[in-house]
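Ticket #4471: structure export looks truncated?
Reporter: QA, pipeline team
Priority: medium

Steps to reproduce: submit the single chain below to the structure queue and open the exported record.
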Amino acid sequence: MSDARVEELEMRLSFQENAMQTMSDEMAKQQQQLELLTREIKRLNKALESASSAPSANQIDEPPPPHY
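Actual output as written to the record:
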């Protein structure tokens, strides 16, 4: 193989390694975001469940709106 061909292949390999590292870093960031969002959704679901299952005395004691 000629030196120019070897140099071209080395450049391509270097570019591909760089691209793979960049994609790997981005995937790691996205995985962290996904885990954070999953935890937040679970927390919000628990808050919603506890709010909907708690007896709401305020609704019973609240007078009807003036248009009634």
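Status: closed, not a bug. The export was complete when the record was re-opened. Leaving a note from the reviewer for reference: The chain has two helices and no strands.
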